[in-house]
Amino acid sequence: MMKPTPLEQIIVAMIREDGPIPLDRYMALCLGHPVHGYYMSRDPFGPEGDFITAPEISQIFGELIGIWCAAAFQALGAPDEFHLIELGPGRGTLMSDMLRASRVMPGFRDGVRIHLVETSPALRKLQAARLGQTITWHDSLATLPDGPSIVIANEFFDALPIRQFESRNGQWMERRIGLGADDRLVIGLSAQHLDRPPGTDGDILESAPLRDDIARELGSRLAASPGVALVIDYGHAASALGDTLQAVRRHKFCSILDRPGEADLTSHVDFESLGNALRQGGALPHGPITQRQFLLSMGLEARAALLTQKAKLPERNVIGRAVERLAGENQMGNLFKVLAATSPGLPTPYPFGSP
Q1: What is the pLDDT of residues 266-312, one digit of tens each?
Q2: What pairs with residue 186 in β-bridges?
Q3: What is the pTM of this model?
Q4: How confident is the model at residue 40 (pLDDT cuts 50, 70, 90)?
Q5: For residues 277 and 221, is the Cβ–Cβ distance under 8 A?
Q6: Would you say residue 47 has pLDDT above 90?
Q7: 73 contacts 228 by C-beta, under 8 angstroms
Q8: Closest by alpha carbon to 88, among 288, 252, 228, 231?
């Protein structure tokens, strides 16, 4: 039996002292513990990490979002100064590709002020090295300055902690992390009142209070200052029951209890709930649409064809595989959704208003 991770030892001591903890508390510790959290001390992205995000698959992804940002800049009236904000910017790859593509819009590069919402010291170092220009980092949305803004959140909301409830014998029970034999972590249930009727035994209901809080905060920002936001993540367009929480370690799925602090924990984003929270904050949500629909509408095939013409045969094959992975119906294309939000009074951004 493997020795417990340092974080597991901490969590076991917490549970022994105070009793079982809710799932969202467990997730927050696993991902964000200041010393042993998964994101706090490592680079989890790319071939050497546990997962590869769309910007790491192909430069085309970030370039198309950069073009979208350039159009958003124009919709904002091409302000002399504006904030380009990314939530959870990873290695800085997406921001780098967006900035390169946005050069086509006069005034964009002169007016842009870059703000990254990032809590990981390890990732901040990578972002600084990749971007090589003036950046302001933030631990949360609370310290972002007022003013015109464009906000991008790619695979940000899926990593925020969730709670889970299971229907048992006519009532909802909350899933909590407790201790079993030999002080090993186990999942247990405790009675919890919810303002909704119970489901069929075994039904799983997920809620994401922090996710909705951040979306409301973002909506309030867009209501107070002119701006647009673009959210890309994997998830479902309409609210539904089901267990979507998953853990990945060394590129393989594992139990959420395996090696706390060494595995990535994520869940599917409920885009209906996210859109409602943005609306509650005062913004106008648009979509969601599939990533496939978004990328094809933004010119994925034309950009890929241009790159292919300039590439040698091995690189052409890489480009083709990247396009299929990003937009394929059985890959990221349909699983990932894209949602936009705007300040009241701004036009519906393309391609959300297109037929």
Answers
A1: 999 999 999 999 999 999 999 999 999 999 999 998 888 887 887 77
A2: 178
A3: 0.93
A4: confident
A5: no
A6: no
A7: no
A8: 231
Give pLDDT, residue 52: 67
Predicted local confidence at residue 42, as pLDDT: 62
Written as one string, the DSSP assignment of 158-191 is GGS--EEEEEETTEEEEEEEEE-GGG-EEEEEEE
User: Which residue(s) pair with 191 in the sheet?
Assistant: 173
- Report pLDDT digits (tens) over 250-266: 778 899 999 999 999 99
Cβ neighbours of residue 204 closer than 8 Å, sequence gap 6 or more: 164, 165, 166, 167, 241, 242, 243
Q: Of 112, 102, 107, 119, give the one whose Cα is nearest residue 133.
A: 112
- Positive or negative, the CA dihedral 222, 228, 230, 235 is positive
Specify the residue for token string 């073009």: 67
**pLDDT at 140 > cutoff 50:** yes
What letter does residue 301 receive in the DSSP assignment? H
Q: Are 294 and 351 in contact (CB under 8 A)?
A: yes
Collapse the DSSP code of 270 into the 3-class scheme (helix H, G, I; strand E, B; otherwise coil) and give the result. Answer: strand
Give the DSSP letter of residue 287.
E
Helix, strand or coil, per DSSP, at residue 5: coil
Burial of 348 (0-12, 13-18, 19+ CB in 10 A): middle
Q: How far apart are CA 63 and CA 338, in angstroms?
A: 16
DSSP assignment letter at 45: B
Please give the pLDDT value at position 28.
95
Q: Count of residues for the chain?
A: 355
> Are residues 220 and 148 in contact, defined by beta-carbon separation less than 8 angstroms?
no
Distance of alpha carbon 120 from alpha carbon 117, whole angstroms: 10
